[in-house]
Design goal:
With 266 residues, this protein is α+β, with helices and mostly antiparallel strands. Helix content is 20%, strand content 42%.
């Protein structure tokens, strides 16, 4: 099954994304993703499946979760293959209930995309999390992230928190991440679990996690435009947040993306 696949490998700030160009039935996403993630020459962290165009170019993640980096990479791929190339494109992606628009600078490789604004936030105490400090859970369509500050990024800590969130918040979350934020070094280490494929990665970067961190920070700030740049293991992602009348109206995310040529996997 699916012995021949055409893929493009995207590098959005180290969050290596394998985009499958060959049509794949949704029921086979997990099997195909496992095959591709085990291919060490691709070095992928996640897999996205490109769908036939409908109203908008469309893409689904393996677990039908939302992924901001894969969404930006997909937008770049579709914009670059257009004739003539497009500097702005709107796409439809899994885990998001409305199309997203990206703006592309081909000279720098920067792709800026309007992100879905989180729809839920909750503070957890240190006691609830069994840590020495609390954290902020921020949910977007299709994924939720727990924002922690100045706690070492360790897999044991992540697994305890993952199990806590799935048992006490939502057992059906498509994906969950912990954003370990080092405020001294201005560094964020993302760890993300995708339920359907049962994978956990210390990611090179996480776009939706960056948006969640920007949202949590903006809640503590006044009205206006707020910019945040977060260094992550694989590169840097930046956000611009617009807050009016104590309500966060818009968050955009940007960063450099590179794409491989089409690779045939047999």
């Amino acid at each position: 099954m699916y012995d021949n696949l055409d893929v493009v490998v995207a590098d959005p700030a180290g969050n290596i994304t394998i985009m499958v160009l060959t049509p794949v039935d949704r029921k086979d996403y997990a099997d195909v993703a496992q095959k591709l993630l085990q291919n060490k020459t691709l070095n992928g962290e996640q897999v996205a499946f490109i769908l036939p165009d409908s109203s908008y170019p469309a893409m689904e993640m393996c677990g039908l979760e939302f992924c901001g980096n894969a969404s930006r990479a997909f937008a770049l791929y579709k914009a670059a293959e257009a004739k003539p190339q497009k500097n702005e494109i709107t796409v439809s992606v899994s885990g998001c209930d409305k199309p997203l628009t990206a703006r592309i600078d081909y000279e720098t490789g920067n792709v800026e995309m309007d992100m879905p604004v989180p729809d839920y936030v909750r503070e957890y105490t240190a006691k609830e999390l069994s840590l020495n400090k609390g954290g902020t859970l921020v949910r977007l369509d299709g994924i939720a992230h727990l924002i922690l500050t100045d706690i070492a990024p360790m897999i044991d800590t992540f697994e305890i928190l993952r199990d806590f969130i799935y048992e006490n918040y939502d057992p059906d979350l498509p994906a969950f991440g912990v954003m370990f934020c080092d405020t001294v070094n201005q560094m964020m280490t993302p760890v993300v679990y995708v339920k359907d494929v049962d994978t956990t990665y210390f990611e090179g970067s996480c776009a939706s996690g960056t948006v969640a961190a920007a949202y949590a920070l903006a809640l503590t700030q006044g009205n206006g435009e707020h910019r945040l740049e977060l260094q992550q293991p694989g590169g840097t992602l930046s956000t611009t947040t617009i807050k009016k009348e104590n309500r966060i109206e818009k968050i955009s995310l940007s960063g450099i993306i590179t794409l491989s040529d089409v690779i045939h996997i047999s």
